[in-house]
Amino acid sequence: MNYERQTIPPEKIEHQLTICHEIFDRVTAHGARPLAMVDTYGCQQNEADSEKLRGYLAEMGYGFTEDEFQADVIVVNTCAVREHAEMRVLGNVGALNHTKKAKPGQIIAVCGCMVQQQHMTEKIRQSYPIVNLVFGPHELWRFPELLWQVMEKHGRVYATDKQNGAVAEGIPRNREGSVKAWLSIMYGCNNFCTYCVVPYVRGRERSRLPEDVVREARELVSAGYKDITLLGQNVNSYGRDLDRDVDFADLIRMINDIPGDFLIRFMTSHPKDATEKLFRTMAECEKCARQLHLPVQSGSDRILKAMNRSYTREKYLEEVSAARKWMPDLVLTTDIIVGFPGETDEDFAETLSLCEQVRFDAMFTFIYSKRVGTPAATMPDPFTREEKQKHFDALTELANRISAEKHGAYIGTRQRVLVDGETGREEYNLSARTNGGRLVHLKGDPEWVGRFMDVDITGGNTWALYGKEADGNG
Length: 474
Ligand code: SAH
Ligand code: SF4
Hints:
Blueprint: E1 6-7, H1 10-27, E2 35-40, H2 44-59, E3 63-64, E4 73-78, H3 83-102, E5 107-112, H4 118-127, E6 133-135, H5 143-153, E7 157-159, E8 166-167, E9 180-184, E10 186-187, H6 198-202, E11 206-207, H7 210-222, E12 227-231, H8 248-256, E13 263-267, H9 276-284, E14 291-293, H10 301-306, H11 313-326, E15 331-338, H12 345-358, E16 362-367, H13 385-408, E17 414-422, E18 430-434, E19 439-442, E20 452-460, E21 465-469
Parallel strand pairs: 1-8, 2-3, 2-4, 4-5, 5-6, 6-7, 9-12, 12-13, 14-15, 15-16, 19-21
Antiparallel strand pairs: 10-11, 17-18, 17-20, 18-19, 20-21
The structure holds S-adenosyl-L-homocysteine (SAH) and iron/sulfur cluster.
């Protein structure tokens, strides 16, 4: 590894907490509790980052609102993976003109992956004067200091320097929900898939120390969380940057050893680094969910090569067989990009045939989106949007059909599920997840939220299962 893993010293985080308390004195001086809103776009890593933003804001004395007209501080945590997400962010930030007019002291911050791209920061600088603060993912740990600067200076503050990123421990978290929790085990990505902006905006791969991850997992279990999802862009390369003899499978085992009744999930696994050791470990660890998200992106070797994915169709299929050998009941999901530059009808047919062969439980499908600065952005892209849309529709139809068939096969079975929330609907007022992560709608007592229980599956469609409490639950 030709760069050094950077960490933020604990005293620097302490300093941020001191600033939080200064802000607290300032914003609570007039009695009424100030309010903040954090609006999150994109992936689970962003959700986890927003929990940190809310953690800091809570330390500063802010309560939370969903109403942008009530908020004294609005933080928009953005995504850059596809153009569609960026357009939504820009539209919604533009709409904040109204709230700022109604509440002139309102502070608007835009952070996250989108603004780590220079052309986007420029766009905000020029066209969105209502925005007071812009900071990239690498600066999140010093959000209090940046917010303080805005309060002192009454001007605009930018913190989006290019860097590889660091690991910061000790940032307070304000988690959403009490059953499911995100646990970041590593940050950044080294893979440089040719279509993807993530390595440019999130920096290089850096792992948290295993003892920090295990301590956080232990805290989550004692706090009553039952479903812990380990997060990283490629969890299979966990630990490679550490001078320890530890890999992702070892980490799963350490977390599995924590006493308590809970489930371990993780995402995302890159097929180039998925090992038989990982599948064996999953099979041997009783708390590890039988669920694997293994994005294949394409079924064509030609396209996989152009994407720089570093595996072939054959290797992917072998991995799926190995994973299913260890876990016959595995729930397998994937991501697929349709319309990568130069993808022909023949390439796309290979993707369809791979999906028919593997029969994923669910597929997340995306139309290729050109990202500034990535190698794919300069590749010839002769096919029209309409042609790509036709492929996309065909893939969606296939994905929906297979999901419906897979869900249909659950009908009449008994499943152990974790009830994870209320839906607000009358007929099926609770939602739950099977061990493999499939959604189950249930009718029952709101007291069941947070409980593992047996349900009999009575129905299923493309998106979900339906069930009722099985006799004999304690
Ligand atoms: N690190 C994860 C993926 C993170 S991005 C992995 O490698 O699996 C989530 C998904 O968004 C990707 O799997 C891919 O399918 C999709 N994606 C990423 N960049 C994209 C782009 N430029 N256009 C369309 N989809 C994209
Ligand atoms: Fe993007 Fe590839 Fe890294 Fe995933 S592994 S974040 S798709 S570059």
